[in-house]
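Task: encode each sequence below as structure tokens.

Item 1
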Amino acid sequence: MLFVLSLTGVSLLGEDFEDEFPPEGWERTGSVWVAGDDDLRSPPGDGRFAVADSRDGSVVDTLLSPAVPSPYSPEWLSLSFAFKFVKFPGGSDTAEVLLREFSGGVWGPWILLRRYDSSAVGIDSLSFTSAAESLQVAFVYRSDDAALFFSVDEVRLDAMVRFGTDAEASEILVPYPIFADSMFRVGYRVRNAGEDSATIYATYEVVSLSSASDTVSLPPGADTVLYLETVAMLPGYLTARLSVSTPGDTYPHNDTIQTSIRVYPSPSPVISAPVGAPRLIDGVLSDSSWSLAGKVEASNWLGGIPTAACSLFVLHDGDAVYLALKTFYDIYLSYGDQLTFALDDDGDGVWDDGEGFNVLYEGGWFSYPPDSTPSLRPDMGASFSFHYDGSAIYKVQVEWAVPKDSLRDPASLNLTGESFGLALSYYDYESGKVVCLWPQTANLSDPATFGKVYLHPLALASRERTGEDTPPFTLEGRTITLRWGALYDAAGRLVAKGGRIHLRAGIYFWVGRGSSRKVLVF
């Protein structure tokens, strides 16, 4: 005959040390136990933890949990915790985990559950039996000489209890990631945690979006998953909830669970670039002309920092494309920060001959100190500028109406139509993460993963000009930058050949690569 042992885990103690220290009800016998949040001493897991750290010689310090009642006559109990113990080489330091029981009005002696006398890190789970009325746990750090540290986190004490009838809301299964304007499916696990067969009534929902109910019959110890499909229309946070019930339920404390669901902005791989007058490459987005630009969400929700907010702006004027990136995350720049634009001239998703050079790269040296003047990058065929004021802003200008020269001008666009492929990445050195990425699935070395930029008709750009041709690069004030060729004044005198110059108002003529252009400086 097959017997199914169906037990319910009843939580007696749970602590993650995220708030005040010591937590309410906890005690420490000395001053060595403190809260920590650094990577060096952190046990497995996230957030804050408790750590005993003393490098000053002899120490015995104890972190005591509150006394917790154990009212259900459990079959057995489980104490689990994450830990990290680093022993001083040749030292005598040890770490111990102790337990004591309260019965008949008195506390019994401390019982050793685990001792660490060599460096170790991991998640420990200790099982034991006890018929005590209450229990208390202690973490002890001992050293007679030089010592390093012992840290703990996610302390859980669970009693495994046998109930005759018990319906359990066991788990909510949420897919990752979930994007706005897309359908997703949530799973709700229902379990019969009792000793008898049970008919369980379940209600499950994504609050304010969709809900359902069902009745399931389960033998002891069995479970099933119920699914609910719905659509998240907007980015933000949702709540998924599961509630169960069954007649004669002897432990109702596990009948309801809920979890938070994050919905990320829809990662559109397409952006439309309107026509506009030439932009100033000055690191400022406040001018009203940028309000007409095409804009798309460029935050790396999947692999970056959830609080980062990145936006990509695109304009063109028929001769050049103007790109701007704004992020509310990185307001401190270092030499390791890296902004990269990758371009696919014809947007066909493959590297044609020479296209592999089409990468705009800004590697931190230019955007440090925090406010930079416009900078020509002849090796890229582009102008960069950077500025921050509570957010980081990059602006880039790239010409395309020039002959292709992969050695000198690797980024100048050689358009064959009215669209091109684009991918964007912004790596933040301090966090070690890519905080901006467009599209979300982009691989900068594979143009098949790039997004597509559609240009408003080039003919429209030509019609909307003021009658004067635009200079190769238009910078703030009366400063222009020549990537090649020479500039002459109206009398035919040579004014400059390459480099960046500041001009008086007037009419100049630029000559280079078999073509010429009138330049009007106001």
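Item 2
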Amino acid sequence: IAVAEFFFFLTTGYCSSALCSRDLILVHDQPKTWSEGQTYCKENYADLVTISNAQDMNKVIDIMNEDVDNFWIGLYEDVLTWSWSLSDVGYYGDGEAEFRNWDAGEPNSQSGIQHCAGMQHTGKWKDLDCGLLNFFLCLDGNLVEKYYSYWAEAQHYCRQSHKDLVSVRNQAENQEVQSMVPAGKLAWIGLFGDSWKWSDGRNSLIRYWGQGQLDNLGEGPNSHSEHANLTQIVKYFCPTSIISKLLPEASQQYHLITGSLTWHEARSFCRVKYTDLAAVNNMADKNRLVNMLGGRVAHTWIGLHKGAADRWMWSDGSGRVHFTRWKEGEPNNVAGDEWCGEMSEAETWNDMSCGDKKSFVCYERELMTHRKVIKEM
């Protein structure tokens, strides 16, 4: 993008408190690169603007010049840094915020999308795709609760209902938390990686990425950004109706949405409103889903998609597809881009282009809750 297309905001005062009032100035007659804008602001005022909350964002919007589309702010990408979701410095003793117990070879940021940390039942940590479904551990005084969700949703739940996702400050606490992780499972902890920094050095985690921007964090730790984007998708597409049915003898509920979304849009909708697109792991699931549809729609997206090594997977992270109901001759990838799966009124599956728009089925998983008191956390 040409330099001339970018102008910038600067702030005339630095405040350590979010309640402190700051004056903002829009420099719209001196187009500069980001670095030039930063230098100008630091030499003449304080710095490029940091957006710490919704009030800051609204203040920026209020003084934007409608004749210019793009403005620099103080956000820039640096090396990936691992931080705890619970940022209260008073919670950590000397060096405790830097305690890490990574497994050998971790973190490896595989494919550039592993920005959230999970604990294995061995007590060792791994960096993971934040969009996977895992147990998670909330911190509330000396009480940890164990649930099952995505990292960003886990963070939101813990902050709303307790204190935050659990921080692990030392080896003793690591062993206590380890005792709660089932064999062969992973549990989210509050550690996340973020390569984006504010120019003035403040630790604001607020992000307002535009739709389609920074896709590798679409399911990542910046829940403010994630939910803002996905909420826009939900409001924009406005599904025409939602039909829900509790599954007998199951801990999940199916929801038929008779709107018209692409597979990825449908997955985003399901992850915001429910748990994920529907997974069909056995004949009982298939029968419940058919009963749910009741012949209402001919073709619906389910959570079936082609993953690594051309293997069909479920979008909820439950793994490779073993139970199948493919239509005869399918999957055939006839269009060359048929990487997503639909279910037809004939109760069979077909591979389709992910950009096709269809109705879809979400499912909602009940939280699996267990309580255990741990010592002096």
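Check on item 2: Residues 136 and 154 are 7 Å apart (CA to CA). The longest strand covers residues 186-198.
End of task.
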